[in-house]
TrEMBL record:
SUPFAM superfamilies: Rhodanese/Cell cycle control phosphatase. PANTHER family: FAD-DEPENDENT OXIDOREDUCTASE (PTHR43031), PYRIDINE NUCLEOTIDE-DISULPHIDE OXIDOREDUCTASE (PTHR43031:SF1). This is Rhodanese-like domain-containing protein. SMART domains: RHOD. It holds the Pfam family Rhodanese. It comes from Corallococcus praedator. InterPro entries: GlpE_sulfurtransferase, Rhodanese-like_dom, Rhodanese-like_dom_sf. Residues 44-134 form the Rhodanese domain.
Length: 465
C-alpha cells in the first residue's frame, strides 16, 4: 500500500478554477460565516476534507455521520489549523450548522483560507437524500492520516484489485437517493478528469439531451429548429434543474487564442491571454454586440473540450445526430447562459486524459425513484477512470419520455411513439458509448462495480475496450 501524492488528497487550491468555484459557493450563501451547501460537498469526492466536530456519541447515534469524514471534537478545533495548514480546503459539520459556523470563524481567525461550514449540518445532509453511516471507523482516522490510502500504478492500466479497493472505500463513494439526484443533481461526463463523485454518462447532461432530441427527430420524422431546441432546453431546466456541460483547459486555451486574434473584436476590451478568471467572466457575460462573433468561436469543434460532443459534431454517421442539431443546441446553451440562466453549468476540466480503466456502476436491484445510488470518484490513487452509470442514465431516459409527452406544443409525440422513443434513446446511447470509448479509451480494461448494499460491492472484469 502506498500513500497517494499530496495533490491527490486535496485539490490545487492555487488553481484559479478551484478558487472561483469555492468563492462562488460562499457568495451564493449570502452569510457572514462561510457556508457551502450539501450538494457542493456531496459532489467533491476527495477534493476537500470533511471534518465532523460533534460529540463522539452523536457520530454513531441516530443521525450518523458523512461517510469518509474525519472527527475533531470542538474543544480540539485548533488542531485543524495546526496540522493541515492554511490552504487545505475544509468543510466543518455539526448537527444544524451552528457549532460548525462558530468553529469556521475561529479557524478563519487562525489563518485558514478555505474553510466553511456545511450549511444546515447533518440535518440538511439527510434531508437532501444523502446517506450517513454510524460506523466507528471514523474514530480510527486522524487529521494527518489521509482520508484514504490507495494503491495505483503510476503507469499502465488499473487492475481489479485497484478497483475493488477504490469502490470499497467510503471516502470515495457517497450515496444519494435517485429522486434527490433527479431534482438537484446533474449527470456529468464519464471523463476521469472530473474529480467529483458524480453520475457519469457520455457528454453529461448535454450528451443525454442531444441523444434525446435526435431520437425524437427519428421517431416523429420532424426536424427541430433552433427556436424549438432553445425552448425545449428552457423547459428541461424548469423540470430537471441543473444542467452540465464541460470543456477542458486545452480547448479553452485554443478558444481564448482564437478570440484574441479575431479582428472583429479588436476594438473590444479583452482580458490578457493569461488572465483565466478574466476570460471566464468575459465569456460568461459578453457584451451583446460581441455575441455573434463569439458564438462562431464557441461552435468550432477544436474549441469543444468534451470529446463526446466533439465526436458527435464531427462524426454524425457514427453518432446518429445531425451536426446542425448539435450546433443548435450549443447556440441555445450559450445564449441562455448569456441571458443569465443560473442552472447551466460550464465546467473546465484541467489537464489531459490519463484514464487507466473504464468503470461501469450498477446497483443490484431494480431501480425506482427512491433507490439509493452510489456516487463514485473517478480518481484512483494517482490515476483516473472513466465512470459510467448506465442504469441511472437509462432510468433518466424514462423520465425524458414523460417529459416529451408533456410538451405537445413543441413535440408531437403520439401514444404509439412512446415505447419506440424509449427504445431508440437507449439504442443510440449504447452506440454512442461504444464509439466514444473506442476513441478515448481504446485498449483499456473494463470493470463493473455491482453494489449489493451500502457496504457490499462486487467488481467484475468485463474485458477491454
Amino acid at each position: 500500500m502506498t500513500t497517494p501524492r499530496p495533490d491527490a488528497v486535496a485539490p490545487h487550491v492555487n488553481s484559479v478554477l478551484f478558487q472561483m468555484k469555492w468563492k462562488a459557493e460562499l457568495r451564493a450563501s449570502g452569510a457572514m460565516t462561510p457556508r457551502v451547501p450539501v450538494q457542493f460537498v456531496a459532489e467533491q469526492g476527495r477534493a476537500l476534507r470533511v471534518i465532523d466536530i460533534r460529540e463522539k456519541e452523536e457520530l454513531t447515534g441516530l443521525m450518523g455521520h458523512i461517510p469518509g469524514s474525519l472527527w475533531v471534537p470542538l474543544e480540539r478545533i485548533a488542531e485543524v489549523s495546526q496540522q493541515l495548514g492554511p490552504d487545505m480546503p475544509v468543510v466543518l459539520v455539526s448537527h444544524s450548522g451552528r457549532r460548525a459556523g462558530l468553529a469556521t470563524q475561529f479557524l478563519q481567525a487562525l489563518g485558514m483560507r478555505y474553510v466553511a461550514a456545511l450549511s444546515g449540518g447533518m440535518l440538511a445532509w439527510r434531508n437532501a437524500g444523502y446517506s450517513a453511516t454510524r460506523h466507528s471507523h471514523i474514530f480510527e482516522r486522524g487529521l494527518t492520516t489521509p482520508t484514504f490510502v490507495e494503491e495505483g500504478p503510476s503507469d499502465g492500466p488499473l487492475t481489479k484489485a485497484h478497483i475493488e479497493q477504490h469502490v470499497g472505500d467510503p471516502s470515495q463513494v457517497r450515496w444519494a437517493r435517485l429522486s434527490a439526484l433527479l431534482m438537484s443533481g446533474r449527470r456529468s461526463c464519464v471523463d476521469g478528469r472530473d474529480e467529483q463523485g458524480v453520475i457519469g454518462t457520455p457528454g453529461g447532461d448535454a450528451g443525454e439531451f442531444l441523444l434525446a432530441l435526435a431520437s425524437v427527430e427519428r421517431i416523429t420524422g420532424k426536424t427541430l429548429d433552433l427556436r424549438t431546441v432553445e425552448e425545449i432546453l428552457l423547459q428541461e431546466l424548469e423540470v430537471f434543474g441543473r444542467f452540465y456541460m464541460h470543456t477542458d483547459t486545452l480547448a479553452w486555451g485554443k478558444l481564448v487564442a482564437s478570440i484574441s486574434s479575431d479582428r472583429r473584436l479588436s476594438n473590444r476590451p479583452l482580458p490578457p491571454l493569461n488572465d483565466e478568471a478574466g476570460w471566464h467572466a468575459f465569456l460568461g457575460h459578453p457584451a451583446p454586440e460581441s455575441r455573434s462573433a463569439l458564438m462562431e468561436h464557441l461552435l468550432e469543434p477544436a474549441h469543444l473540450g468534451c470529446g463526446h460532443l466533439k465526436l458527435m459534431l464531427t462524426k454524425p454517421e457514427d453518432y446518429g445526430v445531425r451536426p446542425e442539431l448539435v450546433r443548435s443546441f450549443l447556440r441555445a446553451y450559450h445564449d441562455l447562459r448569456w441571458q443569465g440562466m443560473p442552472d447551466l453549468e460550464f465546467v473546465t476540466l484541467e489537464g489531459v486524459h490519463d484514464e487507466a480503466a473504464v468503470l461501469s456502476v450498477y446497483v443490484e436491484q431494480e431501480l425506482w425513484d427512491m433507490s439509493s445510488i452510489p456516487l463514485v470518484s473517478p480518481s484512483v490513487g494517482p490515476k483516473q477512470v472513466f465512470v459510467a452509470h448506465p442504469q441511472v442514465a437509462a432510468k433518466h431516459r424514462d423520465h425524458y419520455v414523460e417529459f416529451f409527452r408533456r410538451l405537445p406544443h413543441l413535440v408531437t409525440l403520439e401514444p404509439h411513439h412512446v415505447e419506440p422513443l424509449r427504445t431508440e434513446m437507449n439504442a443510440i446511447a449504447n452506440t454512442q458509448l461504444g464509439h466514444t470509448l473506442q476513441h478515448l479509451a481504446k485498449g483499456l480494461p473494463l470493470f463493473e462495480a455491482r453494489f449489493e448494499g451500502g457496504d457490499k460491492v462486487r467488481v467484475v472484469e468485463a474485458g477491454k475496450v
